Amino acid sequence: MANDITSDNLGDKILEAAKTTFGEKFSVIKTYLTEETRKLADTLDMIIEGRAKSEISEEEAKILLNNQKIAASSVLVAASGMTDAAVQSAINAALGVVKEFVNGKVGFPLLN
């Protein structure tokens, strides 16, 4: 799976996985989900680049990712009226798709 993921399509892969999780409710949350998955991809790209340049630590990378996941969850719960659990499942599915690629790039298990 990680072989077909690149920094250029990271956001698309995250959106596809999250979209699938929302199912029929995707049309209700499409605009918000698209923007939040883009932000997750941007954060992951920033982490990958920062680690490649030794500009951020493993702990800083984990904090950056966690902050973005919390922000995305808050926006999606508010926008969709869905439960935290449903939104968290969508975010987990989205990040699961790019897990191997991202972890390989940063050199530690950022995504579990």
Could you please describe the fold and organization of this structure?
The chain has 112 residues and is mainly alpha-helical. Helices cover 77% and strands 0% of the residues.
What does this entry show, briefly?
With 112 residues, the protein is mainly α. It is built from four helices and no strands.
- β-strand amount: under 5%
Question: How helix-rich are the residues, as a percent range?
Answer: over 70%
Number of strands: 0
User: Low-confidence spans: pLDDT under 50, at least 5 residues?
Assistant: none
Main sheet record: none
**Gross geometry:** globular
What count of helical segments does DSSP give?
Answer: 4
- The overall average pLDDT, rounded, is 87
Terminal CA distance: 15 Å
Name the structural class. Answer: mainly alpha
Order of helices and strands: HHHH
Structural Rg: 13 Å
Structure characteristics:
mainly alpha; 112 residues; 4 helices; 0% strand
SSE blueprint and pairings:
Blueprint: H1 10-22, H2 26-52, H3 58-80, H4 84-106
Helix pairs in contact: 1-2, 1-4, 2-3, 2-4, 3-4
